[in-house]
Amino acid sequence: MVVISASVCTKTGKAILSRQFMDMSRSRIEGLLASFPKLIDNNEQHTFVETDSVRYVYQPLEELFMVLITNKNSNILQDIETLNLFVRAISDYCHNINTHEIEEMAFELSSVFDEIVNLGYREYVSIQQLRTISEMESHEEKLAAEIEKNKEKEAKELLNRKAKSLEMQRKEMQKKMASGGMGMGYGSGGFGNNGGYGNSSGYGNNNNYGNNGGFGNNGGYGNNDGYNNNNGYGNNGNYGNNGGYGGFGNNSGYNNNMNQNNYNSNNNNQQQNQPFRGKGMQLGHKNNNNVNDLVSQMQEEVSNQAIAEQMASASNEPSTPTEPVHAIISEKISLAATHDGGLENLEIKGDMILRISDPNSTRLRIQLNNSFNRNFQFKTHPQVDKKLFNSDSVIALKDPSKPFPIGSPLGILKWRFATRDESFIPLSINCWPSLAANGTCDVNIEYELEVPNITLNNVSIIIPYPGMGNPTVGEVDGSYNINHQNRYIEWQIPIIDADNRSGSMEFNVPGNDTNAFFPVRVNFTSQQSFSNINIADIQLVEDGTSVSYSNETRLMPENYIIM
Amino acid sequence: MSDPCYTLIQQDDDKEQLSVQDLKKALEHGKDEQKIQTMKKIITLMINGDPCPQLLMHVIRFVTPSRDKRLKKLLLNYWEICPKTNPDGKLKQEMILVCNYYKNDLQHPNEFIRGSTLRFLCKLREPELLEPLIPSVRDCLNHKYAYVRKNAIFAIYSIYKNFPNLIPDATELISNVLIVETDMSCKRNALVTLANISLPLASEYLNSVWSQIDSFDESMQLAVIEIIMKDCRNPTANKSKYIQCIFSLLQSNYASVKYDAATTLVTLSSHETAVKAAASCYISLIMKVPDNNVKLIVLNKLNELREKHGRIIDGMTMDILCVLSSPDIEVRRKCIDIALEMVTSRNVDEVVSFLKKELVKTHDQEYERNTEYRQLLIHAIHTCAIKFHEVAANVVYVLMEFLGDAHNASAVDVIAFVKEVLEKIPELRSKIVKKLMESFMEMKTGRVFRGALWIIGEYCLTVEDIEAAMNEIRNTLGDLPLLASEQRSYENELESNENKDGEEKKSAQPRVLADGTYATESAFSTYTSIKKDNKQRPPIRALLLKSDFYLGSVLASTLTKIVLRYEELCSDAEKINSLKSEAMLIMTGIVNLGRSKFVNSIIDEDSVERIMTCLRTLATSPEDKLLKDAFLTDSRSAYSQLVRNQDKKAAQEKELNKKNHAIQVDDVINFSLLKSKKNVQSENDEIESDLTRATGSSSKTTKVTSQLSRVMQLTGFSDPVYAEAYVNVHQYNILLDILIVNQTSETLQNLTLEFSTLGDLKLLETPVPHTLRPHGFHTVKANIKVSSTETGVIFGNIVYDGPGALDTSCVILNDIHIDIMDYIKPAYCTETKFRSMWTEFEWENKVNVNTNITDLRQYINHIMKTTNMACLTPEHALSGECGFLGANMYARSIFGEDALANICLEKQGDSIAGHIRIRSKTQGIALSLGDKITLNQKILKN
């Protein structure tokens, strides 16, 4: 039951294209094909010949032959069917079957041959399926590309925001400098193209791969991180040329250095156009005045989303004056709901990060307000006194004599909440496509804020649409933006809060696949947390006096999808 | 064995060949579209023998980052053929990068890219590359899409097959997949995999799904059969369950399943019911499937079954004959062949009556190649009747209806049959002779008449018969004397032409041609009009006028015979004399006619001689006893001896066949019931070996000593580089195993072995340079493709860089001559085929015999031995000693080329004179065979 080879050969037995499905030597297959034309008799009404070792089943294709070589025990009934499929596939790909055309299409045909017979076994496929397979159009891939694009966009937005914040900080610093010689040094950082896919820089230009922390040092190529990391091998080339969003660095390490009142005045554009060189990214690295040096430190892209987001969070609230003790509460929400209202999964992850820059206020007790949601699962830093937290909602170190570390941010509390209860959905989206008479779809989409005590900013709802036509948007609350290239509509609502809980949009698009409007994605930012955790007070352990502190809270969706 | 080859793509020689530098450039700067074109060019180059190792890094740098799917597919093709190891067998550094690329593709969101990458992994043979990919492959087993899963299963299969230690738990993995999987094609792949890597688990799975097998789809059912086929050798196998399952699969909806089930069934059991079930399944397949290929192959299977199980399926002869409804002559022929083998005394009546019905049908219905079919049927009936005399009487009359058949062969076959029946079954003689005479007028061709006349001459034994026969002969001849009546009718014709007015007259008048001259008209041109009426003439007369004088001579001897016999039987002298004179009149008439202008060509000497002998015999009849015997008894006894000899021969053949079946006293006797595992193994191997034979991977083990005899020294012992080659001739290629020894005390750099060839030989790979340390040695393999039987010469040289940068040294190698005898195999063909090829072939090489052998037979044997040809001339024709010898010889090359030879020898005193003519379609064979013969004659002289 084995097809050994499928070939298209000339009347003289020269193979124009031949694909073998078993291991056999080149001279053997060429010999078999060369002896084939001498074996056949044109007057016969059957189209197979047998030799001592093989059977040829063939079909004339105008000037050529399509030949299957099988072993003699092969199932002829199946082979005939297979042969017919081969012939149909060839005529499907080539308009005129002649030597030239087959040569032209040789590679396409050989991959089609592979689909018909696999390891010698027949695959039961139709011509239609063969087409689909060779076109390789994958829904999954589009989805993945979409996700990636969104991430890129997010990163871009962050960049813009950061640019602004930078400007603000600069001004502020100038003020501070003037007032008391206090200054801040910013570490350099960078974020951008996030790891996983889109390893766009390639293995270019550099011959010393292997030295560069790639596979060798990174725990071998089995290690996923080692590989996806762009740092792996190769000088990552010129980022400015590399598709726009590639590498923008920002000096955002909060290295609060009193003595060094330097800052850098470079802006992003400048950085983008700089060729990167040298070392890996360093968070909170000490900065110096030289712009180029700064740039050189940011040279590698950060492949890790988490870091990028931390960076983003750092710059998220530029207006908040940063006190010697600064706490960041960030939450990420991921949600997958079905379009008929069911909740597949809702997960909220949050953490509290403490950053202390004053060496005098390191031994602290942090009193949380008591209003937070106890349904969440909390996890404290191993050195934090867990009992105290559970009983009094106070975060303090187990050993009161120990200080919190200075300078570097420390995650002291983490929480997580997962549910499938629909009532927890913060923002419900109702996307309702319906078929209209003239082959178009009317889509009504509305949102409603289900948790009244939360305010969402910069909400954007992304609805993909099918087909080639352009959608016409009817009524809309807020603004919208149609991305023709990637075929989605982005509906933007600047703010959603208790006063402004719901809104709707209507649009019409040619097409008849109502499922094509999903998945709908939602992006937003918020300065409130879902868990409602907040810091009530921070005191010094020794004397219980309050220290001045600043805090910021942010909530952002990680993956908010309505399928 | 050399590397497996997965793709062949013809290289377009007309196109300009790009240099490696150009290709690199194209890769560096091109857009995707241009890269695709470049990749295609590179792969075609590589497939055709240039490994392009310099391009690997460029491909990695510039092609792998692309997201274009077509490029991705091309890359898979590229990886298939790209050499992954350095010459020292170690993995290339660059491949580590590629490995990462594989890994990314195995995790690619596009399911088709995943799938095709998995398929590619089946062809990857480097464990170092595979190892890091294993986790991803495993993940793919659980992918959402069946396309990915099914390829993942096969990937695991081939990885496990080659490197079991990489996935030690593959068997469990696959059997788990089998249980959870719902997609049929994935299931099939899993089942096939399991069948190949762990048969017990596969059969365990089968045990759990007996009841569902009927509902499986075609591919699954085939896979189930494959498992049963493999597992049935296992002594612990659940055979009864298997048989039951196969029986139910015989009823499957899929023809291919039925076919495999039937084949498997007979290997599982040789019980009568099983064999019968298989046979009837085959027959129904033949009837139902319209494809001729299928019909023929299934008929072959049926024939195998018949050979193996003999009489069990004889009862189905009639079912097999139903296949005759298929219109293809080849199918019918095969069907009749099988049916004839199965004819027994029990069913012969039925068979013959069926064949008769078919025969009658050929009269009314128009089939394609009707006449051929008719001939086939007549021959079949003939064979039946000879085998079973009792039906002969039944069919002979039916067959004689076909004596008048315009188609030569079938009528001739009938007359030969009638002859044989008459000889073998004396009871039927008088009846048949009567019948024959009735159909005398309907016969058309000379050969049939000759046969019929001979029968009349031999078997008209009574006065009445003879008189009746004479009457018929008169009828078929028409007016006597022949020439005078012909003359008369010609004159009448002319007269009537004269009488007729109009056109006819005009035709007799001189015509004026276009150029103004008178066209002359001779008797010959009017003669054509006489010829036109020949159809209305009595048949024999018409034939005679067409110059069939051989028929005339046969008629003469027949007349002589019946007259002589009449003389013996009848006492009425008057009657005898009138008969005798009439006969003599006819004979002289034939001779006269033959010499007249009415025939196309004048009668030949031999026929005249023969007729004259008959005349003389009749004139002197009563006296010459010797002549009389010669006419009356000798020819018949000669015929009966011929028939007897034929029977004897057939019996001998049968005997011979029987002897082949016989088992020697000291042989092991196999009882199928008591078959041990070991014996069974051999049968199993047969199936396996079928595949290895087909892929050509079976290597014959040759003795070391015989290998040594084929070692050729290529350079001298005092050359700086010594080389010798072992020439290994495979079926379609020559493998040179070359040993190179550095005889100097310096390191030889860039040492390259270059070959070029003469004749139809092609070097498959381009040579790679080596560096050879002082007194070091190295072996190189060179693969040379042979595509036709022709004397080939391989010559070459060794080039290396000397100590200085600029001096290059060169050692020229001895030529290696390829012996065409390795490719020529003795073969047999029928005489007619030989003749037709002889006239068709264009190339002839005539070699004069020049030898010191003195015996003709010895010379022929010598030639046969040296040229590997088979002698077509039968043994008895060669036997005896008369100083002359002629023989035909035939051989076929493994490339399917025919070589014919004809030897004509004459003994002249102590030496042999004569010549050998060799003919072939291509010049190469004729020349090289001729050279071979000339050379060997000379060698023998020394």
TrEMBL record, chain A:
- Region spans: Disordered: 251-288
Q: What does this protein do?
A: The coatomer is a cytosolic protein complex that binds to dilysine motifs and reversibly associates with Golgi non-clathrin-coated vesicles, which further mediate biosynthetic protein transport from the ER, via the Golgi up to the trans Golgi network.
InterPro entries given for it?
AP2_Mu_C_sf, AP_mu_sigma_su, Coatomer_dsu, Longin-like_dom_sf, MHD
Topological type in the membrane: Peripheral membrane protein
Q: Which family does it belong to?
A: Belongs to the adaptor complexes medium subunit family. Delta-COP subfamily.
Specify one Pfam family.
Clat_adaptor_s
Predominant location: cytoplasm
Mitochondrion as a keyword of this entry, yes or no, is: no
* Record flagged with keyword DNA damage: no
**Can you state the subunit structure given in the record?**
Oligomeric complex that consists of at least the alpha, beta, beta', gamma, delta, epsilon and zeta subunits.
Q: What is the lineage of its organism?
A: Eukaryota, Fungi, Fungi incertae sedis, Chytridiomycota, Chytridiomycota incertae sedis
> Can you name this protein?
Coatomer subunit delta
Example of a GO cellular component annotation carried by this entry? COPI vesicle coat
> Where along the sequence do coiled-coil regions lie?
133-176
Family annotation (Gene3D superfamilies):
3.30.450.60, Mu homology domain, subdomain B
Instruction: State the PANTHER family in the record.
Output: COATOMER SUBUNIT DELTA
Q: Which keywords does the record carry? A: Coiled coil, Cytoplasm, Cytoplasmic vesicle, ER-Golgi transport, Golgi apparatus, Membrane, Protein transport, Transport
What are the BP-aspect GO terms? endoplasmic reticulum to Golgi vesicle-mediated transport; Golgi localization; protein transport; retrograde vesicle-mediated transport, Golgi to endoplasmic reticulum
> Where is this chain compositionally biased, Low complexity type?
251-274
Q: Which residues form the MHD domain?
A: 322-563
Compartments in which it is found:
Cytoplasm; Golgi apparatus membrane; Cytoplasmic vesicle, COPI-coated vesicle membrane
TrEMBL record, chain B:
**UniProt feature, compositional bias: Basic and acidic residues:** 497-507
The molecular function GO annotations come to: structural molecule activity
Gene3D superfamilies documented for this protein: Leucine-rich Repeat Variant
A biological process (GO) of this protein is: intra-Golgi vesicle-mediated transport
Keyword annotations for this protein, in alphabetical order, are:
Cytoplasm, Cytoplasmic vesicle, ER-Golgi transport, Golgi apparatus, Membrane, Protein transport, Repeat, Transport
> Where, per UniProt, does this protein localize?
Cytoplasm; Golgi apparatus membrane; Cytoplasmic vesicle, COPI-coated vesicle membrane
Its Gene Ontology cellular component terms are: COPI vesicle coat; Golgi membrane
Q: Determine the domain of life of the protein's source.
A: Eukaryota
Q: What is this protein called?
A: Coatomer subunit beta
